[in-house]
């Protein structure tokens, strides 16, 4: 089955045929599909790339190392899709990539995806002694992203900050007050009403403190 699905992707002779083949391969949830799905990220076919990202996220942890190993060799387009996949998977091995992409990538969609990803890292998969510093780095990056010129990135940053506070609630992180101050600022003064509303929602959801 895996071979047939992979061959269908490799032999597709139209954009629509490729899209349908990638969707079928992604939905199969087969580890053998990982190299092919990663290859699709480099094709000039956004629809197929979206389907491949979905498939890689579905596969989860097994896809992380293959993605990281090939990241530096990617053209920009493929790298951007790979960042989206890593953000969706949430494995802490992708943390450094997400930290960089959140504030440095020139595509707002990649910055948004990376910011969201920082809020959904599976911290329990990280060595316990590394978690506090990693969460501090993620918070610092998201605070920076909360000043992004694009409102969708600021919106994602708020969600990421809320998720980080929730994840660290039991330890009372030292950066909590800084997050609260920033959310206050955003709920009062952000130029976009959707961002102001999202910041107010985050304030309501955070534990009292």
Compose a concise summary of this entry:
With 209 residues, this protein is an all-alpha fold.
Overview of the molecule:
- 71% of the residues lie in helices and 0% in strands.
- It is mostly helical and 209 residues long.
- The model has no long low-confidence stretch (mean pLDDT 92).
Helix % is over 70%
**Main sheet record:** none
Q: What is the ordering of alpha helices and beta strands?
A: HHHHHHHHHHHH
- How many DSSP-defined strands? 0
Give the class from helix and strand content and strand pairing.
mainly alpha
The radius of gyration over CA amounts to 18 Å
Shape designation: elongated
Strand content: under 5%
Continuous helix count: 12
Structural key phrases:
12 helices; mainly alpha; 2 domains; 71% helix; 0% strand; Leucine-rich Repeat Variant; 209 residues
């Amino acid at each position: 089955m895996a071979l047939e699905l992979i061959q269908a992707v490799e032999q597709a002779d139209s954009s629509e045929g490729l899209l349908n083949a990638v969707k079928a391969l992604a939905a199969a949830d087969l580890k053998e599909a990982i190299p092919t799905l990663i290859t699709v990220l480099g094709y000039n076919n956004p629809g197929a790339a979206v389907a491949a990202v979905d498939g890689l996220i579905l596969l989860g942890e097994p896809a992380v190392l293959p993605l990281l190993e090939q990241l530096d060799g990617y053209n920009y387009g493929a790298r951007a899709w790979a960042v989206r996949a890593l953000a969706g998977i949430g494995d802490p091995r992708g943390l450094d990539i997400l930290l960089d992409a959140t504030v440095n990538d020139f595509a707002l969609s990649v910055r948004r995806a990376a910011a969201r990803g920082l809020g959904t890292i599976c911290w329990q998969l990280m060595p316990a002694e590394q978690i506090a510093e990693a969460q501090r780095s993620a918070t610092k990056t998201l605070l920076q992203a909360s000043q992004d010129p694009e409102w969708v990135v600021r919106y994602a940053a708020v969600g990421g900050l809320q998720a980080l506070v929730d994840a660290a609630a039991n330890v009372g992180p030292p950066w909590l007050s800084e997050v609260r101050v920033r959310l206050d600022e955003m709920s009062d003064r952000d130029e976009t009403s959707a961002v102001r509303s999202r910041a107010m929602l985050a304030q309501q959801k955070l534990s009292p403190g």
